[in-house]
Amino acid sequence: MDIKTLEELDLSTLTRKSYGDDQLLEQNVAEIIARVRTEGDSALYDLTEKYDGVDLHSLGLRVREEEITQAYSLVDEKFIEAIRLAKENIAAFHEKQKRNSWLDPKEDGSILGQLLLPLKRVGVYVPGGTAAYPSSVLMNAVPAVVAGVEEIVMVTPPSKDGTLLPEVLVAAAEAGVTEIYKVGGAQAIAALAFGTGEIASVDKITGPGNIFVTLAKKQVFGTVDIDMLAGPSEILILADDSARAEELAADLLSQAEHDPLASAILVSPDRQLLEKTVAEVERQLQELPRQGIARASWENYGAAILVKDLVEGMDLANEVAPEHFELVVREPYNWLGRVKNAGAVFLGRFSPEPVGDYFAGPNHVLPTGGTARFYSPLNVDTFMKKVSVISYSEKALQRDGKHIAHLARKEGLEAHARAVEVRKLW
User: Fold this and answer.
1) What are residue 414's DSSP bridge partners?
2) Which of 57, 171, 183, 354 is 20 to 30 A distant from 271 in Cα terms?
3) Domain interval for residue 352
Protein backbone atom coordinates (compact mmCIF):
# COMPACT_ATOMS: atom_id res chain seq x y z
CA MET A 1 0.00 0.00 0.00
CA ASP A 2 1.29 3.46 -0.91
CA ILE A 3 1.49 6.29 1.61
CA LYS A 4 -0.75 9.14 0.44
CA THR A 5 -1.07 12.80 1.31
CA LEU A 6 -4.42 14.55 1.60
CA GLU A 7 -3.94 16.04 -1.86
CA GLU A 8 -3.57 12.57 -3.36
CA LEU A 9 -6.52 11.08 -1.54
CA ASP A 10 -10.16 10.62 -2.50
CA LEU A 11 -11.87 10.31 0.87
CA SER A 12 -15.14 9.24 -0.72
CA THR A 13 -13.55 5.89 -1.55
CA LEU A 14 -12.87 5.26 2.14
CA THR A 15 -16.18 6.34 3.63
CA ARG A 16 -19.89 6.26 2.82
CA LYS A 17 -19.43 3.15 0.69
CA SER A 18 -21.82 2.15 -2.10
CA TYR A 19 -23.51 -1.23 -2.11
CA GLY A 20 -23.93 -1.33 -5.88
CA ASP A 21 -27.41 -1.02 -7.34
CA ASP A 22 -29.21 0.15 -4.21
CA GLN A 23 -32.49 0.56 -6.08
CA LEU A 24 -32.52 -3.14 -6.93
CA LEU A 25 -31.64 -4.09 -3.38
CA GLU A 26 -34.39 -1.79 -2.07
CA GLN A 27 -36.88 -3.55 -4.34
CA ASN A 28 -35.76 -7.01 -3.22
CA VAL A 29 -36.09 -6.01 0.42
CA ALA A 30 -39.51 -4.46 -0.19
CA GLU A 31 -40.71 -7.74 -1.73
CA ILE A 32 -39.49 -9.71 1.28
CA ILE A 33 -41.22 -7.32 3.68
CA ALA A 34 -44.46 -7.47 1.70
CA ARG A 35 -44.40 -11.24 1.70
CA VAL A 36 -43.89 -11.43 5.48
CA ARG A 37 -46.73 -8.98 6.03
CA THR A 38 -49.03 -11.06 3.85
CA GLU A 39 -48.00 -14.63 4.70
CA GLY A 40 -46.69 -14.30 8.26
CA ASP A 41 -44.92 -17.34 9.69
CA SER A 42 -45.18 -19.27 6.44
CA ALA A 43 -42.98 -16.67 4.75
CA LEU A 44 -40.45 -16.83 7.58
CA TYR A 45 -40.08 -20.60 7.23
CA ASP A 46 -39.80 -20.43 3.45
CA LEU A 47 -37.35 -17.51 3.41
CA THR A 48 -35.17 -19.08 6.10
CA GLU A 49 -34.92 -22.21 3.97
CA LYS A 50 -34.22 -20.14 0.86
CA TYR A 51 -31.55 -17.83 2.27
CA ASP A 52 -30.08 -19.82 5.17
CA GLY A 53 -30.59 -23.34 3.86
CA VAL A 54 -32.44 -24.40 7.01
CA ASP A 55 -35.84 -26.09 7.25
CA LEU A 56 -37.22 -25.07 10.64
CA HIS A 57 -40.66 -26.69 10.32
CA SER A 58 -39.78 -29.47 12.73
CA LEU A 59 -37.71 -27.30 15.08
CA GLY A 60 -39.86 -24.17 15.17
CA LEU A 61 -38.82 -20.54 15.03
CA ARG A 62 -38.68 -19.87 18.76
CA VAL A 63 -35.78 -21.06 20.88
CA ARG A 64 -37.00 -23.35 23.65
CA GLU A 65 -35.88 -23.17 27.26
CA GLU A 66 -34.17 -26.55 27.01
CA GLU A 67 -32.01 -25.23 24.16
CA ILE A 68 -30.76 -22.45 26.43
CA THR A 69 -30.10 -24.92 29.24
CA GLN A 70 -28.13 -27.11 26.86
CA ALA A 71 -26.17 -24.09 25.66
CA TYR A 72 -24.80 -23.54 29.16
CA SER A 73 -23.44 -27.08 29.15
CA LEU A 74 -21.64 -26.45 25.86
CA VAL A 75 -19.66 -23.34 26.82
CA ASP A 76 -16.70 -23.18 29.16
CA GLU A 77 -16.62 -21.44 32.51
CA LYS A 78 -14.12 -18.86 31.29
CA PHE A 79 -16.63 -17.69 28.69
CA ILE A 80 -19.42 -17.42 31.25
CA GLU A 81 -17.13 -15.49 33.60
CA ALA A 82 -16.11 -13.09 30.81
CA ILE A 83 -19.71 -12.54 29.71
CA ARG A 84 -20.85 -11.80 33.26
CA LEU A 85 -18.01 -9.35 33.90
CA ALA A 86 -18.65 -7.61 30.58
CA LYS A 87 -22.35 -7.41 31.42
CA GLU A 88 -21.53 -5.78 34.77
CA ASN A 89 -19.36 -3.17 33.09
CA ILE A 90 -21.94 -2.42 30.39
CA ALA A 91 -24.75 -2.16 32.93
CA ALA A 92 -22.72 0.11 35.21
CA PHE A 93 -21.83 2.46 32.36
CA HIS A 94 -25.39 2.68 31.09
CA GLU A 95 -26.85 3.15 34.59
CA LYS A 96 -25.07 6.51 34.62
CA GLN A 97 -27.08 7.56 31.56
CA LYS A 98 -30.47 7.19 33.24
CA ARG A 99 -32.55 10.30 33.77
CA ASN A 100 -35.67 10.84 35.84
CA SER A 101 -39.05 12.23 35.00
CA TRP A 102 -39.49 15.78 36.26
CA LEU A 103 -42.20 18.28 37.19
CA ASP A 104 -41.66 22.03 37.47
CA PRO A 105 -44.31 23.84 39.59
CA LYS A 106 -44.78 27.54 38.82
CA GLU A 107 -45.81 30.31 41.20
CA ASP A 108 -49.10 30.74 39.34
CA GLY A 109 -50.10 27.16 40.18
CA SER A 110 -49.38 25.57 36.79
CA ILE A 111 -47.09 22.60 36.45
CA LEU A 112 -44.97 21.67 33.47
CA GLY A 113 -42.89 18.55 33.16
CA GLN A 114 -41.76 15.50 31.31
CA LEU A 115 -42.30 11.79 31.83
CA LEU A 116 -39.45 9.49 30.80
CA LEU A 117 -40.90 6.07 30.07
CA PRO A 118 -39.29 2.86 28.81
CA LEU A 119 -40.55 1.27 25.62
CA LYS A 120 -42.62 -1.84 26.31
CA ARG A 121 -41.27 -4.22 23.67
CA VAL A 122 -38.10 -3.97 21.57
CA GLY A 123 -36.47 -6.18 18.97
CA VAL A 124 -32.74 -6.84 18.89
CA TYR A 125 -31.06 -8.03 15.70
CA VAL A 126 -27.86 -10.02 16.18
CA PRO A 127 -25.81 -10.77 13.06
CA GLY A 128 -24.88 -14.30 12.04
CA GLY A 129 -23.09 -15.55 8.96
CA THR A 130 -19.31 -15.08 8.88
CA ALA A 131 -19.01 -14.64 12.65
CA ALA A 132 -21.08 -14.90 15.82
CA TYR A 133 -21.41 -11.92 18.11
CA PRO A 134 -22.41 -12.64 21.72
CA SER A 135 -20.98 -9.21 22.50
CA SER A 136 -23.68 -7.62 20.30
CA VAL A 137 -26.30 -9.38 22.38
CA LEU A 138 -25.00 -7.69 25.52
CA MET A 139 -24.59 -4.28 23.90
CA ASN A 140 -28.19 -4.23 22.68
CA ALA A 141 -30.03 -5.99 25.47
CA VAL A 142 -28.31 -4.68 28.61
CA PRO A 143 -29.13 -0.99 27.97
CA ALA A 144 -32.72 -2.01 27.29
CA VAL A 145 -32.87 -3.79 30.63
CA VAL A 146 -31.34 -0.75 32.36
CA ALA A 147 -33.98 1.44 30.69
CA GLY A 148 -36.75 -0.80 32.06
CA VAL A 149 -37.96 -2.47 28.86
CA GLU A 150 -40.23 -5.39 29.77
CA GLU A 151 -39.97 -7.51 26.61
CA ILE A 152 -36.70 -7.91 24.69
CA VAL A 153 -37.01 -10.03 21.55
CA MET A 154 -33.87 -11.28 19.83
CA VAL A 155 -33.70 -12.47 16.22
CA THR A 156 -30.63 -14.02 14.62
CA PRO A 157 -29.96 -16.32 11.65
CA PRO A 158 -29.70 -20.04 12.47
CA SER A 159 -26.78 -22.31 11.66
CA LYS A 160 -27.17 -24.93 8.93
CA ASP A 161 -28.41 -27.50 11.46
CA GLY A 162 -31.12 -25.16 12.71
CA THR A 163 -29.42 -24.29 15.97
CA LEU A 164 -27.92 -21.10 17.36
CA LEU A 165 -24.41 -20.94 18.70
CA PRO A 166 -24.40 -21.72 22.44
CA GLU A 167 -22.34 -18.59 23.16
CA VAL A 168 -25.07 -16.41 21.64
CA LEU A 169 -27.79 -18.18 23.63
CA VAL A 170 -25.87 -17.90 26.90
CA ALA A 171 -25.20 -14.22 26.28
CA ALA A 172 -28.90 -13.67 25.61
CA ALA A 173 -29.90 -15.43 28.81
CA GLU A 174 -27.35 -13.49 30.84
CA ALA A 175 -28.36 -10.16 29.27
CA GLY A 176 -32.08 -10.53 30.03
CA VAL A 177 -33.51 -11.33 26.59
CA THR A 178 -37.06 -12.64 27.01
CA GLU A 179 -37.70 -14.23 23.57
CA ILE A 180 -35.33 -15.61 20.91
CA TYR A 181 -36.21 -16.50 17.31
CA LYS A 182 -34.14 -18.29 14.66
CA VAL A 183 -34.67 -15.91 11.80
CA GLY A 184 -32.42 -13.35 10.15
CA GLY A 185 -32.22 -10.97 7.22
CA ALA A 186 -34.89 -8.59 5.98
CA GLN A 187 -37.55 -11.14 6.89
CA ALA A 188 -36.61 -10.91 10.57
CA ILE A 189 -36.91 -7.12 10.52
CA ALA A 190 -40.31 -7.38 8.82
CA ALA A 191 -41.48 -9.87 11.44
CA LEU A 192 -40.44 -7.55 14.27
CA ALA A 193 -42.07 -4.55 12.64
CA PHE A 194 -45.41 -6.04 11.60
CA GLY A 195 -45.70 -9.25 13.59
CA THR A 196 -46.48 -12.76 12.42
CA GLY A 197 -48.33 -15.62 14.05
CA GLU A 198 -45.42 -16.57 16.29
CA ILE A 199 -43.66 -13.23 16.63
CA ALA A 200 -45.50 -10.23 18.05
CA SER A 201 -44.56 -6.80 16.72
CA VAL A 202 -42.22 -4.53 18.66
CA ASP A 203 -41.93 -0.79 19.26
CA LYS A 204 -38.31 -0.41 18.18
CA ILE A 205 -35.60 -2.42 16.41
CA THR A 206 -31.91 -2.12 17.26
CA GLY A 207 -28.74 -3.87 16.23
CA PRO A 208 -26.53 -3.98 13.14
CA GLY A 209 -26.79 -6.38 10.22
CA ASN A 210 -25.91 -6.78 6.56
CA ILE A 211 -27.18 -4.51 3.80
CA PHE A 212 -30.52 -6.36 3.60
CA VAL A 213 -31.08 -5.82 7.32
CA THR A 214 -30.10 -2.16 7.06
CA LEU A 215 -32.40 -1.49 4.11
CA ALA A 216 -35.23 -3.35 5.83
CA LYS A 217 -34.83 -1.19 8.93
CA LYS A 218 -34.94 1.85 6.70
CA GLN A 219 -38.18 0.70 5.07
CA VAL A 220 -40.04 -0.21 8.27
CA PHE A 221 -39.05 3.01 10.04
CA GLY A 222 -42.25 4.85 10.88
CA THR A 223 -44.13 1.66 11.62
CA VAL A 224 -41.54 1.10 14.32
CA ASP A 225 -38.57 3.14 15.47
CA ILE A 226 -34.99 2.08 14.72
CA ASP A 227 -31.66 2.87 16.30
CA MET A 228 -29.63 3.80 13.21
CA LEU A 229 -28.67 2.63 9.73
CA ALA A 230 -25.39 0.86 10.43
CA GLY A 231 -22.87 0.04 7.72
CA PRO A 232 -19.53 -1.78 7.66
CA SER A 233 -17.15 -1.23 10.55
CA GLU A 234 -14.57 1.56 10.54
CA ILE A 235 -11.47 2.58 12.42
CA LEU A 236 -9.33 5.69 12.05
CA ILE A 237 -6.13 5.98 14.06
CA LEU A 238 -4.28 9.25 14.53
CA ALA A 239 -0.75 8.47 15.71
CA ASP A 240 2.49 10.31 16.36
CA ASP A 241 6.06 8.98 16.57
CA SER A 242 5.43 7.63 20.08
CA ALA A 243 3.16 4.92 18.64
CA ARG A 244 4.30 1.39 17.85
CA ALA A 245 3.81 -0.04 14.38
CA GLU A 246 3.04 -3.56 15.61
CA GLU A 247 0.21 -2.29 17.81
CA LEU A 248 -1.21 0.04 15.18
CA ALA A 249 -1.26 -2.76 12.61
CA ALA A 250 -3.09 -5.05 14.99
CA ASP A 251 -5.67 -2.37 15.73
CA LEU A 252 -6.27 -1.68 12.03
CA LEU A 253 -6.76 -5.37 11.33
CA SER A 254 -9.13 -5.75 14.28
CA GLN A 255 -11.68 -3.90 12.16
CA ALA A 256 -10.59 -5.10 8.72
CA GLU A 257 -11.36 -8.70 9.69
CA HIS A 258 -15.03 -7.82 10.25
CA ASP A 259 -16.06 -7.32 6.64
CA PRO A 260 -14.52 -6.89 3.17
CA LEU A 261 -16.22 -3.46 3.14
CA ALA A 262 -14.76 -2.37 6.49
CA SER A 263 -12.34 0.54 6.45
CA ALA A 264 -9.09 0.86 8.40
CA ILE A 265 -7.30 4.20 8.15
CA LEU A 266 -4.02 5.29 9.72
CA VAL A 267 -3.18 8.99 9.84
CA SER A 268 0.16 10.37 11.00
CA PRO A 269 2.64 13.18 10.36
CA ASP A 270 5.42 10.55 10.65
CA ARG A 271 6.13 8.91 7.28
CA GLN A 272 8.46 6.34 8.81
CA LEU A 273 5.73 5.20 11.21
CA LEU A 274 3.27 4.88 8.34
CA GLU A 275 5.72 2.80 6.29
CA LYS A 276 6.54 0.51 9.22
CA THR A 277 2.86 0.01 10.01
CA VAL A 278 1.94 -0.81 6.41
CA ALA A 279 4.71 -3.44 6.37
CA GLU A 280 3.52 -4.76 9.72
CA VAL A 281 -0.06 -5.05 8.47
CA GLU A 282 1.17 -7.22 5.62
CA ARG A 283 3.11 -9.42 8.02
CA GLN A 284 0.21 -9.84 10.42
CA LEU A 285 -2.23 -10.55 7.61
CA GLN A 286 -0.34 -13.77 6.90
CA GLU A 287 -1.23 -15.03 10.38
CA LEU A 288 -4.94 -14.21 10.47
CA PRO A 289 -7.59 -16.96 10.18
CA ARG A 290 -9.85 -14.41 8.42
CA GLN A 291 -7.05 -13.29 6.14
CA GLY A 292 -9.20 -13.16 3.00
CA ILE A 293 -11.76 -10.81 4.55
CA ALA A 294 -9.15 -8.61 6.23
CA ARG A 295 -7.02 -8.37 3.08
CA ALA A 296 -9.98 -7.34 0.93
CA SER A 297 -10.87 -4.65 3.44
CA TRP A 298 -7.30 -3.37 3.72
CA GLU A 299 -6.62 -3.34 0.00
CA ASN A 300 -9.93 -1.75 -1.01
CA TYR A 301 -10.81 0.52 1.89
CA GLY A 302 -7.62 0.84 3.92
CA ALA A 303 -5.31 3.86 3.83
CA ALA A 304 -2.09 5.22 5.28
CA ILE A 305 -2.28 9.00 5.13
CA LEU A 306 0.56 11.46 5.70
CA VAL A 307 -0.47 14.81 7.21
CA LYS A 308 1.70 17.83 7.96
CA ASP A 309 0.88 17.77 11.69
CA LEU A 310 -1.59 16.43 14.27
CA VAL A 311 -3.87 19.43 13.81
CA GLU A 312 -4.37 18.54 10.16
CA GLY A 313 -4.83 14.92 11.18
CA MET A 314 -7.52 15.88 13.67
CA ASP A 315 -9.32 17.95 11.06
CA LEU A 316 -9.28 14.95 8.74
CA ALA A 317 -10.64 12.68 11.47
CA ASN A 318 -13.51 15.06 12.13
CA GLU A 319 -14.30 15.16 8.42
CA VAL A 320 -14.35 11.36 8.16
CA ALA A 321 -16.38 11.04 11.41
CA PRO A 322 -15.21 7.47 12.05
CA GLU A 323 -17.07 4.84 14.00
CA HIS A 324 -13.93 4.10 16.07
CA PHE A 325 -11.29 6.79 16.56
CA GLU A 326 -8.01 5.91 18.27
CA LEU A 327 -5.79 8.75 19.48
CA VAL A 328 -2.39 7.09 19.89
CA VAL A 329 -0.34 10.17 20.69
CA ARG A 330 1.84 11.31 23.58
CA GLU A 331 -0.79 13.39 25.34
CA PRO A 332 -4.17 12.11 24.07
CA TYR A 333 -6.20 14.11 26.59
CA ASN A 334 -4.74 17.32 25.17
CA TRP A 335 -6.45 16.45 21.88
CA LEU A 336 -9.75 15.15 23.21
CA GLY A 337 -11.31 18.62 23.18
CA ARG A 338 -10.73 18.83 19.43
CA VAL A 339 -12.84 15.74 18.71
CA LYS A 340 -16.08 16.78 17.01
CA ASN A 341 -17.26 13.72 15.10
CA ALA A 342 -16.68 10.12 16.21
CA GLY A 343 -18.71 7.18 17.45
CA ALA A 344 -16.23 6.31 20.19
CA VAL A 345 -12.79 7.68 21.07
CA PHE A 346 -10.00 5.46 22.39
CA LEU A 347 -7.21 7.33 24.19
CA GLY A 348 -3.64 6.05 24.30
CA ARG A 349 -1.90 2.81 23.38
CA PHE A 350 -3.51 0.83 26.19
CA SER A 351 -7.03 1.47 24.87
CA PRO A 352 -7.20 -0.66 21.71
CA GLU A 353 -10.57 -0.77 19.98
CA PRO A 354 -11.50 -4.31 21.16
CA VAL A 355 -11.56 -3.01 24.75
CA GLY A 356 -14.65 -1.07 23.72
CA ASP A 357 -16.04 -3.85 21.56
CA TYR A 358 -16.23 -6.31 24.40
CA PHE A 359 -15.65 -5.15 27.90
CA ALA A 360 -15.09 -1.57 29.03
CA GLY A 361 -18.79 -0.64 29.23
CA PRO A 362 -19.55 1.98 26.56
CA ASN A 363 -21.72 0.66 23.77
CA HIS A 364 -20.17 -0.82 20.64
CA VAL A 365 -23.24 -0.18 18.48
CA LEU A 366 -21.92 3.00 16.90
CA PRO A 367 -22.72 5.29 13.95
CA THR A 368 -20.88 4.47 10.71
CA GLY A 369 -20.43 5.91 7.24
CA GLY A 370 -19.93 9.47 8.47
CA THR A 371 -23.18 9.49 10.46
CA ALA A 372 -21.26 10.19 13.67
CA ARG A 373 -21.78 13.79 12.55
CA PHE A 374 -25.35 13.51 13.86
CA TYR A 375 -25.91 10.05 15.41
CA SER A 376 -24.95 8.84 18.88
CA PRO A 377 -23.96 5.39 20.13
CA LEU A 378 -26.71 3.08 21.32
CA ASN A 379 -27.62 4.17 24.85
CA VAL A 380 -30.34 4.08 27.49
CA ASP A 381 -32.27 6.90 25.80
CA THR A 382 -32.51 4.66 22.73
CA PHE A 383 -35.03 2.59 24.70
CA MET A 384 -36.92 5.47 26.28
CA LYS A 385 -39.64 7.84 25.16
CA LYS A 386 -40.55 11.24 26.55
CA VAL A 387 -44.06 12.48 27.32
CA SER A 388 -44.69 16.17 27.97
CA VAL A 389 -46.85 17.16 30.96
CA ILE A 390 -48.91 20.39 30.97
CA SER A 391 -51.14 21.43 33.86
CA TYR A 392 -52.20 25.10 33.49
CA SER A 393 -53.83 26.90 36.40
CA GLU A 394 -56.83 29.23 36.04
CA LYS A 395 -54.56 32.18 36.78
CA ALA A 396 -52.08 31.11 34.07
CA LEU A 397 -54.78 30.62 31.44
CA GLN A 398 -56.36 33.96 32.33
CA ARG A 399 -52.98 35.62 31.82
CA ASP A 400 -51.96 33.80 28.62
CA GLY A 401 -55.29 33.00 26.98
CA LYS A 402 -55.59 36.11 24.81
CA HIS A 403 -52.08 35.56 23.44
CA ILE A 404 -52.85 31.91 22.64
CA ALA A 405 -56.07 32.89 20.86
CA HIS A 406 -54.26 35.58 18.88
CA LEU A 407 -51.61 33.12 17.67
CA ALA A 408 -54.29 30.57 16.76
CA ARG A 409 -56.18 33.08 14.60
CA LYS A 410 -52.96 34.13 12.89
CA GLU A 411 -52.67 30.51 11.77
CA GLY A 412 -56.30 30.45 10.62
CA LEU A 413 -57.35 28.01 13.35
CA GLU A 414 -60.48 29.58 14.80
CA ALA A 415 -61.52 26.50 16.78
CA HIS A 416 -58.19 26.58 18.59
CA ALA A 417 -58.84 30.16 19.66
CA ARG A 418 -62.40 29.41 20.78
CA ALA A 419 -61.23 26.40 22.83
CA VAL A 420 -59.36 28.90 25.00
CA GLU A 421 -61.94 31.71 24.96
CA VAL A 422 -64.89 29.42 25.82
CA ARG A 423 -63.57 29.30 29.38
CA LYS A 424 -64.49 33.02 29.70
CA LEU A 425 -61.59 34.02 31.93
CA TRP A 426 -61.15 37.54 30.52
Assistant:
1) none
2) 354
3) 3-17+232-360
